[in-house]
Design brief:
The protein is an alpha/beta fold. The protein is 33% helix and 19% strand. The two termini are 29 Å apart.
């Protein structure tokens, strides 16, 4: 795994926001989508949330009511995972981890039906409306929803800082591969830093 590059472009200013990706109970508890690493990174993510809770956005991945309510390839996806649709799952599992819910408010929650939070423009419009031009990204899974969040933010022109030790996945090899991708292929547009450095640079 590549070493974090640090805050190459200087400290984070007042126009930075923290996007914490999909740290929900359905990925933490005993479900087919469980990602045990989440609990390992949670204390570090909490530290990041404590820095500026009012500048934190939690995204949540929201499944459809039933497979037939999804479109295209997503319908096939939920036919594979019908037990994770809203008609089958305990609704409490869609919620954020209890430790993170404590930050809301002032932190906000943004629900999305797919990997990317950018697909319909609502999140970008909300962030731009408050002057945000820099995003600090944490959460999971590294190679799916986090990567989609990073690439969309790059396309939209944000300064992107990935909290390298605030990410989690269920597949360590893919987690490491994405860290290498960010370092080797996206290094001009993505900074990777440890949460301690991010907190020190975001006062």
């Amino acid at each position: 795994m590549a070493e974090p590059t640090g805050l190459q472009h200087g400290p984070l200013g007042p126009n930075a926001a923290h996007v914490c990706v999909d740290m929900q109970r359905m990925f933490s508890e005993d479900t087919p989508w469980a990602t045990p690493w989440m609990r390992q990174v949670l204390p570090r993510v909490i530290t990041l949330c404590e820095t500026h809770p009012e500048r934190t956005v939690f995204t949540r991945f929201i499944p459809p009511d039933r497979p037939e309510a999804a479109s295209g390839a997503w319908r096939r996806y939920y036919r594979r995972w019908p037990q994770m649709t809203r008609e089958a799952i305990n609704p409490d599992l869609i919620r954020l981890l209890p430790e993170l819910e404590l930050f809301t408010p002032p932190a906000t929650v943004f629900d999305k039906p797919v990997y990317s939070p950018w697909i319909d423009g609502r999140l970008d419009s909300t962030l731009r409306g408050t002057g945000v031009d820099t995003l600090i990204i944490s959460g999971g899974e590294t190679e799916v929803c986090v990567l989609s969040t990073i690439l969309g933010a790059v396309d939209l022109g944000y300064r992107v800082v990935v909290a390298a030790d605030g990410l989690f996945s269920s597949v360590s090899e893919l987690h490491d591969a994405v860290q290498t991708l960010l370092h080797d292929r996206l290094g001009q547009q993505v900074e990777t830093a440890l949460i301690e450095e991010v907190v020190d640079g975001w006062r």
